[in-house]
Every structure is written in structure tokens, then in C-alpha cells.
Design brief:
4-stranded antiparallel sheet; 3 helices; 4 strands
Length: 170
């Protein structure tokens, strides 16, 4: 005698194959390809921005050393490299001297100068979409005892910015 469950299996013996529609297959692979392109694009963009930021940071460290060197030259001529009345914060010709010594093509803006130590307290280095801001440990009377490295002394901030809007007067 046959079971009730055996009656349901009758006529369905063997492997049952399901046919996939071609539209489902194409849709799935298009979604996967778009996802892969987005992930790869994000990784490449992040890598390029990070590499540019590291290059700008290295150049800003060279600019810091050039500021110290040119500041020493101006000190020897009984003058100062720092002139807060100027847009870039440096006396006439000092920006050109810094550019020659550092061999960098970016823009340097000097915000504060330590006359006693003859070194920059705060400056910005701008090149392309990158802005590197340096603030010395001695800025505003703060002294850090744990930073002994002359090259890395202070706080460095590297920023990547996109210009969204630009308003010009006519």
C-alpha cells in the first residue's frame, strides 16, 4: 500500500532544473559591476588624495626650514622676515627668498613669528587643493616638553578642499 507522501512524489523523480531568465542574470551582473567600479573608484580617489597630502606635507616641512634659514639671514641684516601689515605676512622680497631656498611652488602665508627663537610660530602653505597649516608648540605661550624633534616640533594640519562656489565682483 502506498503512503500519502508517496503520492505527491509520483511523477517528479530525478533532478529538477530551474531555468533562469536572461533578464535576471544581466541585471545581477550589471549591479555587481557598478558596485565594483564604485569601490575601485573610491579606493583610487582616496589613494591619490592621500599621496598628494603627503607630498604637500613634505613640502611644507621644507618651507618651515626655509623660513628659519631666511629669517636668520634677515636677522643678520638687522631686519625681520615678519611683517604683519603685508598680505603674506613677510617683508618685501622675503617670499621670493623662501621660494628660492625651498624650491617649492606653493604660496606661503606667515601668521606669527618668534623673534627670540627666530622661527615661525604659525604659517600656511597652499599648493593646489591642499593647505598645510603649521602651529608651533610655543604659539600663544604653550610649551610642549614631549616634542624633542626639531623637524616635527608643533602641530601640522593637512587639508584637502574643493572650491564649491566662487563669487567675483564685477
Amino acid at each position: 500500500m502506498a503512503n500519502a507522501s508517496d503520492n505527491n512524489i509520483e511523477g517528479r523523480e530525478g533532478t529538477i532544473f530551474y531555468r533562469r531568465r536572461i533578464g535576471d542574470w544581466i541585471r545581477r551582473y550589471i549591479i555587481e559591476l557598478v558596485f565594483i567600479f564604485l569601490v575601485v573608484g573610491f579606493v583610487i580617489t582616496t589613494t591619490v588624495i592621500t599621496a598628494g597630502a603627503r607630498k604637500a606635507f613634505r613640502e611644507a616641512k621644507d618651507v618651515r626650514m626655509a623660513l628659519k634659514f631666511v629669517g636668520t639671514q634677515y636677522y643678520g641684516m638687522n631686519s625681520s622676515i615678519y611683517d604683519p601689515s603685508k598680505i603674506n605676512g613677510m617683508t618685501d622680497g622675503a617670499a621670493d627668498d623662501v621660494a628660492v631656498v625651498s624650491t617649492r611652488k606653493g604660496e606661503v602665508i606667515l601668521y606669527a613669528w618668534d623673534e627670540k627663537e627666530n622661527m615661525p610660530l604659525k604659517f600656511e602653505y597652499r599648493k593646489g587643493l591642499y593647505t598645510v597649516t603649521y602651529i608651533s608648540d610655543n604659539f600663544e605661550g604653550k610649551v610642549s616638553e614631549d616634542s624633542n624633534s626639531n623637524q616635527m616640533m608643533g602641530h601640522w594640519d593637512v587639508t584637502y578642499s574643493l572650491k564649491i562656489l566662487n563669487y567675483d565682483s564685477e
